[in-house]
Amino acid sequence: MPIPLDYETLRLIWWLLLGVLLIGFALTDGFDMGVAALLPVVARTDEERRLVINSIGATWEGNQVWFILGGGAIFAAWPHVYAISFSGFYLAMFVVLVALILRPVGFKYRSKKADPAWRRMWDWALFVGGFVPALVFGVAVGNVLLGVPFRLDSDLRATYAGGLLDLFSPFALLAGLLSVAMLVLHGAGWLALKIEEGPVLARARRWGVGAALASIVLFGLGGLFVAYGGLGYRLEGVVDPSGPSNPFLTKAVAAPGAWLDNYASAPKTLLAPLIGFLGPVMALVGIWRRADLPVFLGSSLGAFGIIATAGLSMFPFLLPSSLDPASSLTVWNASSSHLTMWIMLLATLFLLPLVLLYTAWVFRVLFGRITTEAVRTNPDFY
After folding, report:
1. 88-105, pLDDT tens digit by residue?
2. What is the pTM (predicted TM-score) of this model?
3. What pLDDT, in 10s, does the model give residues 281-330?
4. C-alpha angle 76/332/338, rounded to 5°?
5. What is the widest separation between alpha-carbon atoms in the chain?
6. What are the E-state strand segments in the chain?
7. How far apart are CA 196 and CA 28, in angstroms?
8. Number of C-alpha atoms within 13 angstroms, CB side, residue 55?
9. Deepest in the core among 206, 252, 268, 352, taking most CB within 10 A?
10. CB under 8 Å to 95, separation ≥6 — which residues?
11. CA–CA separation, 237 vs 247, rounded Å?
């Protein structure tokens, strides 16, 4: 049976779907990580900490499924990208997984004992489960923009030449701090929606102001670094978007400033960085005016714009190689087969709307603020 969509179109669709999954992860599990990172600084008593924890207690498990979906999409649609990135960043991913494992354990075990030292230990575990993934994910994106030190041999076997400490270059750390600021702002926006007016919310707003300002400054510095710091890769020669998935059939070269090419050729894409700046500004205005919904909407728009900016800047690159640019993986040369992408698309068109509808239903059912009185009296709360 003929496939109704050509190979190029399917590759573009899956590139967009990958962006949807990554942004979905940032918008849902992102506020969980932001709230956890804020826990030590906005909550000072056990009751206040329980108030913060239970603001995300009902949804965090479902939210982190977006991370699994994103990894699964990379594995299925671009297996070479999955293999090289997950093996090259193995130690960093291990750190992330340990941090993410601490989160469910912290939620489940924190209230098993009334001992303050016991609860304080699990509070810090929850902080690590929020702060560390937010930092490492940003560092990973920074390294992808810089180029990853790998090389493919004639049999398409990858050799990775980097180490764990090599990941933490100045630009990668800047990207990591931007990720933390972005998600801390998102967490503050969620607390503005979910907890009652009081000292915890007042502290969350203060930290939200700092996170919003940091997001704006760090995003701007990142843009200057990309423009003037010699970053970028470019495809040269004839590129066949419907050609076989073979990296050696395309020629990629390091080209300082090339990450800005797409904005010159398609000016409408400048909306992404514009949204990345305007989102935190909207959140700031919401905080100053005590308007809670604009804070969360602004933090969401900021995360959307920042992530979209990275994806649009790199297109069609998925994993450029700093060691051997000719080994770089792109949307056109590293995908699964035409048939595989078509079958996956059919499954996605059926399942993704169900996931979105279920997620919307869950948030609708659980809508409402957490109060101190509910923390004291509800036996189902953490």
Report:
1. 788 888 888 899 899 889
2. 0.93
3. 999 999 999 889 999 999 999 999 999 999 999 999 999 998 888 889 99
4. 50
5. 68
6. 150-152, 158-160, 233-236, 251-254, 317-319, 329-330
7. 21
8. 31
9. 252
10. 132, 136
11. 14
